[in-house]
């Protein structure tokens, strides 16, 4: 492989290590990536020859400017070819450049120490003497450790300016440190410099990922808190509506009963009693022993009745006394909302069913929900958690995460399973 193509190619490959979760645009614009590799490669050799012919300071500035321009250019290309935002593209490119630089440090250490030359006939040594062999190992380890996760989520970033400054600082350090401290030094200085450089770059990558994870957790927590507040408001509204419905229906039923008793016409009396029987549906509220659960189950039961969904529930709400009332309402609301939404998509009337059970078993509270799901909409899972079927993943999927979060809040676990057309949610929490 021509030497001039190595830097842009390894740079691009290092960035692609972090692009597992990236959504690419299906268009001709993706050709900009190989074009970038070729153009940057063609410029590299002439620029290096010219930089070596000028003063040392000017040479450093020219080469640093070249690397910075390549990075900025690739940020624009990644933004154009993917669905990433500008900030997400910047962070991804900086992380890719850092990994590429880390691989260069590892190769330089192997080359300067002569480790591979001590047993040149060994298969590992022969592989490590190859430039690309070192990069493959470093990239594979990086992917296994951090590349499989999303680098940063623009929708959950708390301070964009800080991220831009951090990325600029990392990029400048990676570009200038080797040129200022390591190049054209003695062997001992180069070895120490490469080791220090590799450690610093690895720590920068770790900090970058930790800060990104912290921002994601902060964003998820803010969304969960908002969901909890909405659940509290939802409960108050639902309780008022159900109380109002029951008062009105109770009065109507009594009025119809008196009318039927005072009518001599048997047909009219039977008709009125039939109407009275229909109204009794609204007076059939749940009595599980937990007020918050009763309100929610009654509301969901009325919705299911109006949408031809069979809703069955066997629940001992008294066992929920150790949980906060708002947590009870939010937990069961998320479980039932997902189940009812899935059941409503079923075309077969016999499969428009939602089953819910709450029981105590051996000191454990077991909550179990079951519903059918369409064959065309089989749930997908990632790390044991279902992936939202909505197109906007940033604004959806908090329901299942909220279920798992609340289970862990009470030292329990939530599991999700899809098998034989039945979707099952099981929450197990120890009873204090």
UniProtKB/TrEMBL annotation:
<keyword id="KW-0808">Transferase</keyword>
<keyword id="KW-1133">Transmembrane helix</keyword>
<feature type="transmembrane region" description="Helical">
    <location>
        <begin position="6"/>
        <end position="24"/>
    </location>
</feature>
<keyword id="KW-0472">Membrane</keyword>
<feature type="transmembrane region" description="Helical">
    <location>
        <begin position="90"/>
        <end position="110"/>
    </location>
</feature>
<keyword id="KW-0418">Kinase</keyword>
<feature type="transmembrane region" description="Helical">
    <location>
        <begin position="130"/>
        <end position="149"/>
    </location>
</feature>
<feature type="domain" description="Sensor histidine kinase NatK-like C-terminal">
    <location>
        <begin position="326"/>
        <end position="430"/>
    </location>
</feature>
<feature type="transmembrane region" description="Helical">
    <location>
        <begin position="161"/>
        <end position="182"/>
    </location>
</feature>
<feature type="transmembrane region" description="Helical">
    <location>
        <begin position="31"/>
        <end position="51"/>
    </location>
</feature>
<dbReference type="GO" id="GO:0016301">
    <property type="term" value="F:kinase activity"/>
</dbReference>
<dbReference type="InterPro" id="IPR032834">
    <property type="entry name" value="NatK-like_C"/>
</dbReference>
<dbReference type="Pfam" id="PF14501">
    <property type="entry name" value="HATPase_c_5"/>
</dbReference>
<protein>
    <submittedName>
        <fullName>Sensor histidine kinase</fullName>
    </submittedName>
</protein>
<feature type="transmembrane region" description="Helical">
    <location>
        <begin position="57"/>
        <end position="78"/>
    </location>
</feature>
<keyword id="KW-0812">Transmembrane</keyword>
<feature type="transmembrane region" description="Helical">
    <location>
        <begin position="194"/>
        <end position="213"/>
    </location>
</feature>
């Amino acid at each position: 492989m021509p030497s001039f193509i190595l830097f842009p190619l390894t740079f691009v490959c290092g960035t692609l290590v972090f692009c597992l979760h990236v959504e690419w645009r299906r268009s001709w614009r993706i050709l900009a990536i190989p074009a970038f590799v070729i153009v940057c490669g063609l410029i590299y050799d002439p620029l290096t020859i010219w930089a070596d012919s000028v003063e040392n300071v000017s040479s450093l500035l020219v080469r640093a400017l070249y690397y910075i321009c390549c990075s900025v250019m690739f940020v624009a290309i990644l933004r154009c070819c993917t669905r990433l935002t500008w900030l997400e593209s910047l962070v991804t490119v900086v992380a890719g450049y850092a990994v590429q630089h880390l691989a260069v440090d590892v190769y330089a250490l192997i080359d300067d120490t002569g480790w591979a030359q001590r047993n040149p006939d060994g298969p590992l040594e022969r592989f490590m003497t190859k430039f690309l062999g070192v990069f493959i190992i470093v990239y594979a380890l990086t992917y296994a450790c951090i590349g499989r996760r999303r680098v940063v989520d623009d929708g959950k970033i708390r301070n964009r300016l800080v991220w831009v400054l951090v990325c600029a600082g990392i990029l400048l350090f990676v570009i200038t440190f080797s040129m200022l401290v390591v190049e054209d030094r003695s062997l001992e200085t180069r070895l120490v410099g490469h080791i220090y450089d590799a450690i610093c770059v690895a720590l920068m990558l770790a900090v970058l990922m930790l800060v990104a994870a912290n921002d994601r957790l902060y964003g998820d927590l803010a969304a969960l808190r908002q969901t909890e507040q909405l659940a509290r408001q939802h409960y108050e509204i639902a309780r008022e509506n159900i109380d109002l419905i029951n008062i009105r229906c109770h009065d109507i039923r009594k009025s119809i009963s008196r009318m039927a008793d005072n009518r001599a016409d048997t047909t009219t009396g039977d008709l009125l009693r039939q109407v009275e029987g229909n109204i009794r549906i609204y007076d059939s509220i749940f009595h599980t022993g937990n007020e918050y659960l009763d309100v929610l189950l009654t509301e969901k039961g009325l919705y299911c009745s109006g949408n031809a969904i069979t809703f069955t529930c066997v629940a001992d709400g008294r066992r929920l006394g150790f949980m906060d009332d708002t947590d009870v309402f939010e937990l069961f609301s998320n479980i039932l909302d997902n189940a009812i939404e899935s059941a409503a998509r079923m075309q077969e009337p016999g499969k428009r069913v939602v089953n819910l059970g709450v029981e105590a078993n051996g000191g454990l509270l077991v909550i179990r929900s079951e519903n059918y799901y369409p064959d065309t909409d089989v749930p997908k899972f990632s790390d044991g958690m279902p992936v939202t079927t909505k197109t906007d993943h940033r604004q959806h999927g908090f329901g299942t995460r909220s279920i798992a979060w609340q289970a862990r809040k009470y030292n329990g676990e939530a599991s999700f399973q899809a098998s034989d057309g039945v979707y099952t949610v099981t929450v197990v929490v120890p009873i204090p």
